[in-house]
Design brief:
136 residues, globular, single chain, 4 strands, 35% helix
Length: 136
């Protein structure tokens, strides 16, 4: 069973507690890294300029404390492996469903950056952000 390293724990510590619970359940099933929780103004605007984010500061779910978004990648980081991100997606969604049944989600919904319209179809998106998970 994998656990988070110090850097991932620090990043996860900036996120909403519900995301913390979710991510810890995920890492127990599959080794992942928390790449981002809260994001400052400089980094958010840099990502916007690089076109890796669609929004400027302060309009991202990453820009509030606690952060309403986290970015998870496979560990070791394999950014180019869509299959690894798909595997993580299935685990996250399964754990979220269990958390909903356990009444741990406090009325939040979970949105993935590969399914912005939340219809379950990752093939109908124009902006793919596989690592991104957010509470709405």
């Amino acid at each position: 069973m994998a656990t988070f390293g110090k850097t991932s724990e620090r990043r996860l510590g900036t996120a909403h507690p519900i995301l913390g619970i979710l991510c810890k359940r995920v890492v127990a099933r599959r080794d992942v890294t928390v790449c981002e929780g809260w994001r400052d103004e400089v980094k958010q605007n840099l990502y916007f300029a690089m076109k890796t984010s669609k929004v400027q500061w302060p309009n991202s779910k990453h820009n509030v404390l606690p952060s309403l978004a986290v970015d998870l990648t496979p560990y070791p980081e394999m950014w180019s492996s869509v299959e690894a991100f798909k595997e993580i997606r299935l685990i996250v969604l399964e754990e979220w469903e269990i958390m909903e049944a356990e009444f741990l989600t406090e009325g939040f919904e979970l949105r993935h950056g590969a399914d912005w319209d939340m219809d379950g179809d990752t093939t109908d998106q124009t902006f793919m952000d596989w690592p991104h998970w957010e509470l709405i």
